[in-house]
């Protein structure tokens, strides 16, 4: 029987659903055994693997009326690819778990799979397996596996005297989410940034090769995530607002909604730019912006002052 995208999943068999999803995932040449056996078999390119996992829960991390299935697919892949990127690595393999309500139409997981595949294609990664099960809300569980061609960059390597640098958009997704929460759909560029983040997938390796001492991706907020580097490295970090860019659409949203646009930049999450420390300004690669400095002590300050705001996304 041919499947229709408006068919409720309760009428679609598990194997038919899995087959329809897997159809979207081309297998790279490093995949020795792809979907279909008890486990996949993947050639390991180096003497280590980089592994990360992430959950997205409907209602908590996305809303179906704010983002299409394809957008959620992009985002679910992007946040995992970004975590490997933040080690200075590149993802080659992913697995995908989906909990789906029975009354959900088949089109949702298929569109999700298309978005997921499109995002994975940006780094040449293959989706080699996963699982589906029925549940009350949509839950997406992603595991990404990658490798670093140079020494992985941890959060713990920053030392006093280093400079702090940022690569990629920051604050855009928070601007988009704020707009959506107020019932608006524009500026479109910010809403799109929230729906489909664009992590700088080449910048992780670039930073590692340039000698980055510490690195992470900004998923919870610039100040909040800088605190992680400060804590893990046992140093103090000062961010300078004069060096943080406020893009024009954030200025516009700020003045329209009466919000200080720098707050989006300092506390916004989900854009997945990279935040790294380098031994000096001369070693900061092209495309990165120096936004602060590392000193003795602990914690994060903004322009030398204690930061008063919440700092970022709180998970619990
Ligand atoms: Mg991360």
Automatic annotation (TrEMBL):
Q: Where does ATP bind?
A: 130-131, 155, 219
Give the pathway annotation: Cofactor biosynthesis; thiamine diphosphate biosynthesis; thiamine diphosphate from thiamine phosphate: step 1/1
Query: Would I find Nucleotide-binding among this entry's keywords?
Result: yes
Name the source's superkingdom: Bacteria
Q: Which residues form the PurM-like C-terminal domain?
A: 160-302
Per UniProt, where does substrate bind?
61, 270, 313
Q: Where is the PurM-like N-terminal domain?
A: 36-147
**Reaction(s) this enzyme catalyzes, per UniProt:** thiamine phosphate + ATP = thiamine diphosphate + ADP
- Record-annotated residues binding Mg(2+) 3? 38, 83, 217
Indicate whether Nucleotide-binding appears among the record's keywords: yes
> For Mg(2+) 1, which residues are the binding ones?
53-54, 131
Q: Which UniProt keywords apply?
A: ATP-binding, Kinase, Magnesium, Metal-binding, Nucleotide-binding, Thiamine biosynthesis, Transferase
Q: Which residues does the record give as Mg(2+) 2 binding sites?
A: 54, 83
Alphabetical list of HAMAP family matching this protein: TMP_kinase (MF_02128)
| Role of this protein | Catalyzes the ATP-dependent phosphorylation of thiamine-monophosphate (TMP) to form thiamine-pyrophosphate (TPP), the active form of vitamin B1.
- Give the family from UniProt: Belongs to the thiamine-monophosphate kinase family.
Miscellaneous comment: Reaction mechanism of ThiL seems to utilize a direct, inline transfer of the gamma-phosphate of ATP to TMP rather than a phosphorylated enzyme intermediate.
Q: What is this protein called?
A: Thiamine-monophosphate kinase
Organism of provenance: Nocardioides yefusunii
